[in-house]
Design a protein that fits this description.
This is Glycosyltransferase. GO terms for molecular function: glycosyltransferase activity. The chain is an alpha/beta fold and 351 residues long. Helices cover 36% and strands 15% of the residues. The termini are close together. The protein has a seven-stranded parallel β-sheet with strand order 3-2-1-4-5-6-7. A six-stranded parallel β-sheet has the order 10-9-8-11-12-13, sandwiched between helices.
């Protein structure tokens, strides 16, 4: 590369961010000219100090604003900038800019009420900064598909987002999932959801999970017990989804209790995505019938049973993953790379 490579990490000095930054700094070589803007509390090796130009930034608002101003005045059109601390440059730069986002609090609608006031204020400022200054970025980089999805929802633009998971040493990483019996397929599995159609019963999210499975070529059977007269609109939506995406869903209408008890013996598992319950009788009944249970990781569930699979009831992806794991479909592991490969992948796009 003809230009300089700037690594801007003025707010990284502890935790996972420090571990990743340290791994990245250990890959620097003499083939490129590196300029590092680092928190003064971030240690560096002697080799790194001899390889790169290092500018130290104190952990104060004035120092960090000064570092942003220096960056805007120094970066040229041939340079590459990797902002490693979640935030875009405060000012528009002439070079190509990558931002590595690893703080979920900045892109997810997670309450910060339990944090100290100063941390809440900092997160508020950083969320605002990310939202308002993402136009100063050529490309965002995240570590997981979930983070990509969250970031896409936050910036709401056509900005390119790449998933480049890396750790200091990826050797030994695997995803341990017990496979089902050989020869079985998703169509061999049937799930039963005993519930009326009120919003907290979460049917719409369950439908999205089944569509997600269909998008992956998986079509497990789902039986529902919705009263078609009381919940006609929901039943129409189910019919539409079933026809549109070839979903294997059957509504048994409003079964009698005896019919419900009998039907437990005809399916492979109970799936129960309700977001809250005062009790949850189907959980008890399914266990009494010897059925495996897929249910949210929520207190009301754990009050009664220990499910075979749990999921986030607010995420159709989480529900579909629980179904996949239950039926024995392998979930592909992340394509982890080391810091050397990460840096090479970033720079490959700009050479």
């Amino acid at each position: 590369m003809s230009g300089n490579i700037f690594i801007h990490a003025t707010n990284i000095h502890q935790g996972g961010g420090r571990a990743l930054l340290d791994a990245l700094l250990q890959t620097l070589d003499n083939k490129n000219k590196y300029v590092l803007s680092l928190d003064e509390r971030m240690p560096v090796s002697l080799a790194c100090a001899n390889t790169a130009e290092i500018r130290r930034v104190s952990p104060s608002i004035i120092s960090r604003l000064a570092a942003e101003l220096w960056l805007s005045r120094t970066v040229s059109a041939d340079d590459t900038v990797l902002c490693f601390g979640n935030l875009p440059p405060l000012f528009k730069l002439r070079g190509r800019v990558f931002v590595f986002v690893q703080n979920r609090y900045l892109i997810d609608d997670i309450s910060t009420d339990k944090f100290p006031l100063n941390v809440r204020f900092r997160l508020f400022i950083e969320r605002f900064w990310l939202l308002k200054k993402n136009g100063n970025v050529n490309e965002f980089i995240v570590q997981t598909p979930t983070m990509k999805h969250l970031l896409e929802g936050k910036i709401r633009s056509l900005m390119k987002i790449r998933v480049l998971p890396f750790v200091a040493d990826p050797v030994g990483y695997t995803r341990s999932i017990k496979l089902s019996e050989e020869g079985s397929s998703a169509k061999d599995f049937s799930f039963f959801y005993v519930a009326s159609g009120e919003p907290h019963k979460n049917h719409k999210l369950l439908l999205k999970a089944w569509r997600n499975l269909a998008d992956q070529g998986l079509f497990p059977i789902l039986f529902l017990t919705l009263d078609q007269s009381r919940f006609s609109e929901l039943c129409k939506e189910i019919d539409f989804m079933r026809q549109q995406y070839s979903l294997n869903i059957t509504n048994l209408d409003n079964l009698s209790h005896q019919d419900v008890l009998a039907f437990y013996k005809k399916v492979d598992a109970l799936i129960y995505p309700s977001t809250f319950e005062s009790f949850g009788l189907p959980l008890i009944e399914a266990r009494q019938a010897g059925l495996p249970i897929l249910a949210p990781e929520l207190d009301y569930v754990r009050d009664l049973v220990d499910p075979e699979q749990t999921f986030d009831p607010a995420s159709p992806i989480s529900i579909s993953r629980a179904v996949k794991q239950f039926i024995g479909v392998n979930q592909d592991p992340l394509s982890l790379m080391d810091a050397t490969a990460f840096m090479a992948s970033v720079l490959k796009r700009v050479e």
